[in-house]
Amino acid sequence: MGAPPADPLYLRRSGTSLLIDFSTGEPAMLHFGADLGPDLPDLSLLVGPVPGSALDVPVTLGLIPQASSGWRGRPGLRGHRNGQAFSARLRVVSVECPGGGHPGGNACSAVITQADPDAGVTVRTEIRINDGGLLQLRHRLDNDGSGPYSLDELAAVLPLGRAATEILDLTGRWCRESHPQRLPLRQGTWVRSGRHGRTGHDASLLLAAGTPGFGNRHGQVWAVHLGWSGNHESFVDAAADGRTVIGASELLGPGEITLAANASYETPWLFAAYSAAGLDGISDAFYAWFRGRPHHPGARSGKTRPVVLNVWEAVYFDHRLPVLLELAEAAARLGVERYVLDDGWFRGRRSDQAGLGDWYVDEGLWPGGLTPLIDAVTGHGMEFGLWVEPEMVNEDSDLARAHPDWIAGPAPRTAGGSPSAGDSGPGGRLAGRLPVQWRHQQVLDLVNPDAWQYIYDRLDALLRENNIAYLKWDQNRDLVEMGHAGRPSVHAQTQAVYRLLDKLREAHPGVEIESCSSGGARVDLGILERTDRVWASDCNDALERQTIQRWTGLVVPPELVGSHIGPTTSHTTARTHDLSFRAITAMFGHFGLEWDIRHLADSERDELAQTIALYKKHRALLHSGRMVRADEPDPSLRLHGVVSHDGGEALYAVVSVATSFAEVPGRISLPGLLPDAGYRVEAVYPAAGDRRAFLQAAPPAWLAGGAEATGRFLAESGLPMPVLNPEHGLLLAVRRVTAAGPAADLAAGSGHAVRNS
Ligand code: GLA
Predict the structure, then answer these.
(1) Burial of 719 by CB count in 10 Å (0-12 exposed, 13-18 middle, 19+ buried)?
(2) Which residues contact 176 (CB under 8 A, 6 or more apart)?
(3) Is the CB of 538 under 6 A from ligand 1?
(4) Across 641-658, average pLDDT
């Protein structure tokens, strides 16, 4: 092994920095958080004392925290060789800065290699800070020993600033994904485990910790996300020595990863962000990373997000060509640009009890194939999209009958055995227990190359034979007892799904893919690397969506979050909402409809056409600007908006989610504009006189005619709010009218900072 590098590694970019010292021979993580400036700090200032009755050396918090350095918190690496070599002593072998930087200088990326020749393992770590400040880190472990190495866990962690005293993460369930929860950070470990074999409805899209009461736009925040769609854990580990780490790892099953000699395991990417300005700063870092990708929808790729009609809540499994054609015509007249045929089109699929796996157009229902519908849709100038659920199989399907051994389960399912007790398998023709069904379905074992190839070929054929621009790729069950050949296989299954998506995209580069998973059970940066949007929830109730979208949007920008206007009365909550509230909610996402729009009243059809036009007018801004969310003190009100990066325009939504404690709701602040520029604010939707949305004897004067004020005034003082009825919203369009604005008036206290006009 070579001598450890003399210089520390100092990665800095976009206000964030990471400092790693190598003087002990181990990469010691000294700092992750705010940029510490261009000059390397004196590292001796960052090393603490040795306490009494303790290990006799200062304990290093390693890039991979390890007991061989005295670390007694959650270990970074757990593995062994049949019980031996259980505690690695990794020491640095090399540090490279591929971006042209050098250790000790200011670089943005590095590769650190550590090895323990006695344990026979080498770990290579890639770290980079992207433009915008999002840090990425992943490890690859190589088994250099002669025998197999059993890997139990390899975690990616970062040091958490001492100022962080409060944790925020997300949780949820079907139809209620991405809801926040907060708790104090205490000594010990806070772990969020996902054992769903998919990301999970309850997954914490982000695990954050910050200064007391950190909010949307204030406080220091450190946050991590694991880009992985299988089992996982994210955690905050506050050790007894006073140091805290934040990190995540893939959650491996017993014996799931046993590396043969020279084999490797690579962790998913850990994404991490630091913000000195609350959660909006965390979103800025994630959004910049997403939008920096060449294929991301937006100005760079030239792709816009088309208005979608998804027919699911209009027809469910009742596929009748005349009805579907009528829907297409109604959609086209309203300005819809993409028509998506949901579940129910393939062989035997008359309900959710049968057919999954038989990816052939149902000849009985569709004697002419999908062509008559596709031709009508494209003839109206819309794209055609199709629903598929390739990872699943119904026991009642031709596929399961022909290949019962392709159903994944805990035990090898060999032909010819007698069914064991509890075997729910197709006809019980194979030995081996099957997992409990979920929505009458099982998981197809895509680790089996024949099953994988069958699915690839079917999807490839569908895409070749039909003019399909879009797939809604669904995944509707947890993978419990997921096994291949008798061993846990969530890891391999997840990789097989990724490979399937990657190969299909390679073969059909023009096809966009949506990641749906009973709504939002697979929202993560692993799946989003190979799909074009997520379906955040099966709940189209606008009130629920306000929360689901706000918190999904913490990480995922609105152009990647499917968001549809549902029926007037929600199918999942039975709440009834006005069109304006449903539309204002759907607008802050990838907008669409999921509603039987064939028989709307004329007035409703006109209003819907206008909201579609409004979305089209603003979508370039909505899908490129900075997301801002006010720290609104009245819990019944929320304000979010999107401000263009040059501060020239913005679109805000004020939303009332409940009745307010106040008779008059006070002034609503519009943050994020250029303080000294002058702006014109206009209420665009619903109309000022809408009696269902507003309950007031007299509206504030600006509601009908607009207002002009400086960005500073709009942020610090705000505008008097109209009295919005609960479960209603108000859309405000803002544009800059003067570069300097009436700032001088404000400073002089002339009282003319706001003009009703
Ligand atoms: C899942 C999806 C829905 C719909 C149905 C079809 O629940 O989340 O949007 O596609 O499947 O079965």
Answers:
(1) buried
(2) 201, 537, 539, 544, 548
(3) yes
(4) 98
Question: Which single residue is written with the structure tokens 């979305």?
Answer: 615
Catalytic annotation, residues: 474, 538
Is the CB of residue 484 less than 8 Å from the CB of residue 450? no
Interacting residues of 20 by C-beta distance below 8 A, sequence separation 6+: 8, 9, 10, 27, 28, 29, 30, 63, 112
Residues 6+ apart with CB under 8 A from 741: 676, 677, 678, 679, 709, 710, 711
Burial class (CB within 10 angstroms; exposed 0-12, middle 13-18, buried 19+) of 460: middle
**What confidence tens digit (pLDDT) does each residue in 80-122 have?**
999 999 999 999 999 998 765 666 667 799 999 999 999 999 9
* Distance (Å, whole) CA 526 – CA 231: 12
Q: Where are the beta strands (DSSP E) in 597-677?
A: 626-629, 637-643, 649-656, 667-668
What is the per-residue pLDDT for 419? Answer: 41
The predicted structure's pLDDT at residue 6: 72
The preferred substitution site among 173, 176, 342, 349 for testing ligand 1, maximizing ligand atoms within 8 Å of CB, is 342
Inter-residue contact 385 to 471 (CB < 8 Å): yes
β-strand 244-250 against 232-238: which pairing, if any? antiparallel
Closest C-alpha residue for ligand 1 atom 12? 343
pLDDT confidence of 444, banded at 50, 70, 90? very high
Q: Is 324 helix (H, G, I), strand (E, B) or coil?
A: helix
Task: Tell the CATH topology of 299-619.
Answer: TIM Barrel (3.20.20)
Can you name the CATH fold of 9-291? Beta-galactosidase; Chain A, domain 5 (2.70.98)
DSSP state letter for 476: -
* CA 511 from centroid of its chain's CA atoms: 21
Beta-bridge partners for 184: 166
Q: At what angle do helices 371-379 and 321-334 cross, to 10 degrees?
A: 10
Q: How far is CA 512 from the centre of its chain?
A: 17
The span from the CA of 664 to the CA of 670, in Å, is 18
Atom of ligand 1 lying closest to residue 519 CA: 8
- Segment 575-595 mean pLDDT: 98
Q: Which residue, among 501, 651, 525, has the nearest Cα to 589 in the 3D structure?
A: 651
627-756 placed in CATH 2.60.40.1180: yes
- Give the domain ranges of the chain: 9-291, 299-619, 627-756
The reply to whether ligand 1 has any atom less than 6 angstroms from the CB of 387 is yes
